[in-house]
Amino acid sequence: MKLNYLLLDVFTRERLKGNQLAVVCKADGLLDGEMQAIAREFNLSETVFLLKPHVERNTAAVRIFTPEVELPFAGHPTVGASVVLGLQNKVTAVRIEEKIGLITALFEKTDKRSGEARFALPRLPTRIAPLEDRAAIALALGIERDEIGCGVYHPAVYSAGVEFHLVPVRDASVLARVALNMGQWAHTFPHGHHSVYIFTETPNEADNDLAARMFSPGMGLAEDPGTGAAAAALIGLLSEHADIGTGQVDYVLRQGHEMGRPCRITIQLRKDNDVLIHGGIGGHAVIVGEGALDLEA
User: Fold this and answer.
1) Is 258 in the active site?
2) How far apart are the first and last CA of the chain?
3) How would residue 218 be classed by pLDDT, with cut points 50, 70 and 90?
């Protein structure tokens, strides 16, 4: 069996920046364990497998794997897969069946190897639990207790399909010097895959509103350059404190700068009578390579 694949950089317009992604095409013949093994072989934060859709009018079904687990939803694989499908099918919208549900992504071509995709969240974020032990959080992140918190934001657990422990910190300098202490990690961050999204506001940076870093040892990720599912969870916390009753707010978030893989993620939220009714994630992606997996015995 030989399977063609593409390599993309996502949440960036520049090759060799952003978050890397492998997209395996025409993967219908693969078993679950084979997909997991291929994702482990690529050893990227995520690998996407494109399958025939269950419903004919949809564009494709996808499966998303980290090196260790399958995810029902993830942002940078959705953006990357949408750009690939948009380019291949020469369309401006794609309908993707993910385990979380159907996602419709709007696609705009930049050139024959790149484009931008934006999609509405298939599941709006919900608050799962508070995070109240700031001393434990500070110890786990290698920062001071009084450096936790940013403006109106306080630590909490949210999910838009994947659970994240959201930890606001005082400013970008604190974010840059986070140093993980794994001894109490699972106890301090007990939900889901023990994933932590550390973020701050960036009022002194002209090109973005927020900055973040994501760590998820439970997914097999030391640090992820750009995490759409975490940004989707963050929409829940942003919405709680957005100074609008009815209307829309747009943000630009940077991630991955500390890794030398800068990502730019666009975030959108809309409220009606103080209730969140829409969340959106977007970004650019560019194809940087292609090849074939040779799985013949």
Assistant:
1) no
2) 8
3) confident
Amino acid at the residue 24: V
| 168 and 265 co-located in one domain | yes
For residue 84, what are its two tokens? 């690939």
Contact 178, 150 (CB under 8 A): no
CATH code assigned at 143: 3.10.310.10
Q: Which has the closest alpha carbon to 177: 151, 146, 134, 142?
A: 142
Catalytic residue among 14, 34, 41, 46: 46
CA distances from 260 to 47, 69, 255, 288 (A): 21, 25, 10, 17
pTM, 2 dp: 0.97
130 and 94 together in one domain: no
Kind and range of the H or E run holding 232 = helix 228-241
Helix (H) or strand (E) holding 37: helix 32-42
Give, as one character, the DSSP assignment of residue 146. G
The model's pLDDT over 43-101, given as tens digits with 9 standing for 90+, comes to: 999 999 999 999 999 999 999 999 999 999 999 999 999 999 999 999 999 999 999 99
> 81 CB contacts (<8 Å, ≥6 apart)?
23, 48, 50, 60, 62, 96
Q: Which residue has the tokens 């959108």?
A: 268
